[in-house]
């Protein structure tokens, strides 16, 4: 079995069709089919179920897919290591991060990994919680810092909880208050993240407001860096954010904590149940560092 066979296998698994994979690899379809049959003979098992509608993985193919992605990633990283003249081959662990985690805390966590695990290099991917969880399940990401409880057989470590509140448009009557209550939201035009970004907070918001008989004028949207632009477009009087994000994205808008009910944004560290030792080692260092950072904040 050669690395090129694994590259061919991954291409077919991702494309779901032999013809599209052959085009992507610049091979003829018969040539690609021969290579994959050779791989199946080498492994002694069938990797694909071939139908008129396309190609799907067998149970053995699914097991091989995650392993193949890891091997190919390490093989690709080898070129970079040699090119950089590094005398020590470092194990690469990919870490996903969402918007809103303070950069100082992340930098401290990376510094601790560098100090305690010098044989490991970290690769960063910035993505939403939903995107990270999909990447982890698909074998494209080792660890993810996410805003919803991981499920589906993933391991998880609770990192910290941060209270939610409102960044209020300057000049609004609420802006003079030190905090806000749920009753203050009634009839208020509020911009909030859509369910695709923070589903747990989104669902709890809707339920809590409904149960209290409060009817905010919700405007749900997917946004990150352009909160001010989205607020202007929605003519929002307030934006639902954690304090760190509000101070950074809307510095001129007073941020009010929600006094009642308690509504927090929970952050988790997620990784596959079956992982390399390096992934578990990084998870332990990152989780401990981020917890300490949250307690000190």
Q: What structural category arises from helix and sheet content?
A: alpha/beta
Specify the biggest β-sheet: 10 strands, mixed
Helix content: 40-55%
By CATH, the superfamily of the largest domain comes out as: Periplasmic binding protein-like II
Distance between the termini: 52 Å
Number of strands: 12
CATH architecture of the largest domain: 3-Layer(aba) Sandwich
Question: Can you describe this structure?
Answer:
GO terms for molecular function: DNA binding; DNA-binding transcription factor activity. Belongs to the LysR transcriptional regulatory family. Pfam families: HTH_1, LysR_substrate. This is Transcriptional regulator, LysR family. Residues 1-58 form the HTH lysR-type domain. With 297 residues, the protein is an alpha/beta fold. It folds into 3 domains: 3-71, Arc Repressor Mutant, subunit A (Orthogonal Bundle), CATH 1.10.10; 73-157 and 268-296, Periplasmic binding protein-like II (D-Maltodextrin-Binding Protein, domain 2, 3-Layer(aba) Sandwich), CATH 3.40.190.10; 160-265, D-Maltodextrin-Binding Protein, domain 2 (3-Layer(aba) Sandwich), CATH 3.40.190. The chain is built from 10 helices and 12 strands. It has helices at residues 3-15, 18-25, 29-43, 59-83, 103-116, 129-137, 199-211, 227-234, 243-249, 277-296, and strands at residues 48-51, 54-57, 91-97, 120-126, 143-146, 154-168, 180-181, 189-193, 217-221, 238-242, 255-260, 264-272. Strands 3, 4, 5, 6, 7, 8, 9, 10, 11 and 12 form a 10-stranded mixed β-sheet that branches. A two-stranded antiparallel sheet has the order 1-2. Strand 1 and strand 2 (54-57) form a beta hairpin. Helix 5 (103-116) crosses helix 10. It is elongated, with a radius of gyration of 24 Å. The mean pLDDT is 87.
């Amino acid at each position: 079995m050669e690395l090129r066979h694994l590259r061919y296998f991954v291409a077919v698994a991702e494309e779901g069709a032999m013809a599209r994979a052959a085009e992507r690899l610049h091979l003829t379809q018969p040539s690609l089919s021969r290579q994959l049959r050779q791989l199946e003979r080498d492994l002694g098992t069938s990797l694909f179920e071939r139908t008129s509608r396309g190609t799907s993985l067998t149970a053995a193919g699914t097991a091989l897919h995650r392993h193949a992605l890891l091997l190919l990633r390490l093989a690709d990283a080898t070129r970079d290591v040699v090119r950089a003249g590094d005398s020590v081959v470092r194990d690469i662990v990919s870490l996903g991060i969402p918007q809103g985690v303070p950069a100082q805390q992340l930098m401290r966590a990376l510094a601790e990994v560098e100090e305690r695990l010098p044989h490991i290099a970290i690769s960063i991917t910035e993505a939403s919680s939903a995107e990270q969880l999909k990447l982890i399940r698909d074998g494209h990401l080792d660890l993810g810092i996410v805003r919803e409880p991981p499920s589906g057989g993933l391991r998880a470590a609770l990192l910290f909880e941060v209270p939610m509140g409102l960044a209020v448009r300057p000049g609004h009557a609420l802006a003079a208050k030190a905090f806000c209550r749920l009753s203050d939201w009634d009839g208020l035009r509020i911009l909030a993240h859509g369910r695709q970004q923070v589903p747990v907070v989104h669902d709890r918001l809707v339920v809590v407001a409904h149960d209290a008989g409060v009817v905010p004028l919700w405007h749900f949207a997917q946004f990150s860096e352009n909160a001010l632009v989205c607020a202007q477009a929605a003519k929002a009087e307030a934006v639902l954010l954690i304090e760190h994000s509000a101070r950074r994205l809307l510095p001129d808008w007073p941020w009010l904590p929600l006094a009642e009910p308690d509504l927090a944004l929970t952050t988790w560290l997620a990784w596959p149940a079956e992982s390399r030792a390096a992934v578990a080692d990084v998870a332990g260092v990152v989780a401990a560092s981020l917890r300490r950072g949250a307690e000190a904040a």
